[in-house]
Give the backbone structure.
Amino acid sequence: MKSVKAFLMLAIATILTFTVSARELNIVPQPTYINIEETGDYVVTAKTRVILDVAHPNPAYRFVEDLSHIYGVMKVAKRGKGITLSVDNSLHNEGYTITTTAEGIAIVGGSEAGMYYGLQTLRQIIITNEGRVPYGVIRDEPSFDYRGAHLDVSRHFFSVADVKRYIDILAAHKLNRLHWHLTDDQGWRIEIKAYPELIDKGSMRKETLIGHGLEPKWWDGEPYGGYYTQAEIRDIVEYASSRYITIIPEIEMPGHSQAALHALPWLGCQEQDVEVWTMWGVTPEVLCAGKESTYTFLENVLKEVIDLFPSELIHIGGDECPKDRWKECEHCQAMMKAQGLENEEELQGYLVTRIEKFLNGHGRRIIGWDEILEGGVTPTATVMAWRGAKIGAYAAEHGHEVVMVPLPICYFDFYQTESREGEGLHIGGHINFEKVYSWDPFEGISEEARKNIIGVQCNLWSEYLNNLKMVEIQLLPRLGALSEVQWSVDRRNEDTIRQKMESMRKFYDAYGWHYAPYYFEGRK
Ligand code: TNX
């Protein structure tokens, strides 16, 4: 008798597990809490109304727009039944709840952004589950405040439409920062009214290196360039902000500045004529850190930058600055003497801290590549740790806010498979979905310093990516893995992620976003 009962219980449990798992929701990144009922769906169709919270209309309009070409045009209404929206400030600022019953779907956000993220989750369910939203409750909030992706538009240029499409992809993964790498040796891409030469001369290179540049080197012989006007920049900033994404502009200094040096030779130590660089790597041509005119230039540029970008953080680069020119420069040597600086590393520190003070005086804070730690920058500077998690740990232990972007995990310009077969030409390395997914961004960081890790970001350097399709293939599906680190670090689950990504793939297909096939083919 006992065993019959046990058998029955097991059978019932199996059926129940089966029904529940058949109704599992596949959402990337993973929400904090999901409790769905065993039966019953609210079906969203083109006739479903989205009921406005009149004080916060933007998320509703974005949602309708994002579904319109897939689902038909839903209507936004001021009252009635359907998908209702509201704000409850007691929730986490970016958090939300979704409650679904036979009456409709109620989304409550901790703010307008939270409401927007609730609608992102709902959009995934609608698209991947044929509009059927199971009765039940979802509660959600992010793990990290800073959830970023970077885009290098200097090595190759991406149009306004491309950047907007990139932003759409980030928003669907609940990212909230775009780190826009606007200047480098190979092209200056942002219009600065005080120095028209920057785009007149600095946005064009005469040709581009072919391949990895092993000897003998070959160039394509094609002039290449592009830039954004200030009006275009404002448009993109506004586009991002209405998707709750802050754009952090990066103006590289004092290295990675050869395009500016071509436009304005007096920025260099010897005022030598240099070309907008046609190769990749690290050039010895850098801004002179000894002349006052360099500081005036940087401040004038940054004045326009802060006028265009509301972001509190402004990225000032700071990476990979060879000191050869400074060692031979009378201005740099005189500046070192006058400031009591021991060596050229300290001169770089002087430049960075001087710019930091300038930006602080304008109500902004700097973020820079981790080399900024070498010159004694103050703890108010945020550090972007790229040369390894150890440097990130060091910065966090020393009171800096840190964004983790370690090279072996976050460089999405790297190859995605071991064999590299069919991948085309990339810079090198090997980062697959699994490496990103299983990464612990807190490894080696004391309990106390963990609070300083404000977020995580992937970097998309574009030396080998000359169109957006290639960028998308480098970004997806690895961004799926990264978004789980950013939004749901403690909720990751190796057992369910593959099934969730299969569902996410349907979502990518619905939007025509390109993605790499390797993860789905089981290639590592
Ligand atoms: C290093 S990461 C760079 C970039 C290159 C990239 C290629 C960093 C701060 N600097 O200039 O594009 O490697 O992966």
